[in-house]
Write a structure and sequence with these properties.
With 188 residues, the protein is mainly alpha-helical. The chain has helices at residues 2-31, 34-40, 45-51, 55-69, 79-90, 93-106, 114-136, 146-166, 173-184.
């Protein structure tokens, strides 16, 4: 009986996380309320608080869940997989919109996701440094070290997401990323 209850609770948590992702995408973190998320899944706000004790806890859980969708062991990242990730993101604008909105909001002092994104980006830069070193060794064709190029690679990926969200008919995110990889000297 306990495993059935646990499975039901996990299912409900997953449903709440999806609803929170939708509400945050629509309204931004500051405009999203626990009441709106609870209503979307047919719970009271108290029922929602049983699963997530605060709005901040829900936000961090949404971000962690989103990262799990894209999880690839660090040892398996390659430049061509980054291109595939960009293509995959182009098929899920709601997720990209939520991530981008939260990222933008998180740069303000006191935002509950600031620590999450700070830690996440430190890890992403390290992973991209390893990818670039694996592909090019200690110097990229333009002369940059992998450590210097990694933040630029991450900036291109995130910057393309913002441009694509604002004008998807004009910005072909996967194609633009392939063009960037060509500038790095990677095969297209």
């Amino acid at each position: 009986m306990s495993s059935t209850r646990s499975a039901r609770s996990e299912g409900r948590r997953a449903e709440i996380l999806r609803a929170a992702l939708e509400v945050i995408a629509e309204r931004g973190y500051r405009g999203a309320s626990l009441a709106a998320v609870a209503e979307r899944v047919g719970l009271t706000q108290q029922g929602l608080l049983h699963h997530f004790p605060s709005k901040e806890a829900l936000l961090v859980a949404v971000l962690a869940e989103r990262d799990q969708w894209d999880a690839v062991p660090d040892s398996r990242w390659r430049l061509d997989l980054l291109g595939s990730l960009v293509e995959y993101n182009a098929m899920r604008p709601g997720v990209v919109q939520t991530f981008s909105a939260l990222l933008g909001e998180s740069v303000t002092d006191g935002h509950p996701a600031r620590a999450f994104f700070t830690e996440r980006y430190a890890g992403v830069r390290e992973a991209m440094t390893r990818v670039l070193r694996q592909e090019y060794g200690e110097r990229l064709p333009g002369g940059l070290t992998p450590e210097r190029a990694a933040p630029l690679l991450v900036a291109v990926m995130d910057g393309l997401q913002y441009q694509w969200l604002l004008d998807p008919d004009e910005v072909d995110m996967p194609e633009a990323f392939r063009d960037f990889l060509g500038l790095l000297g990677a095969e297209r």
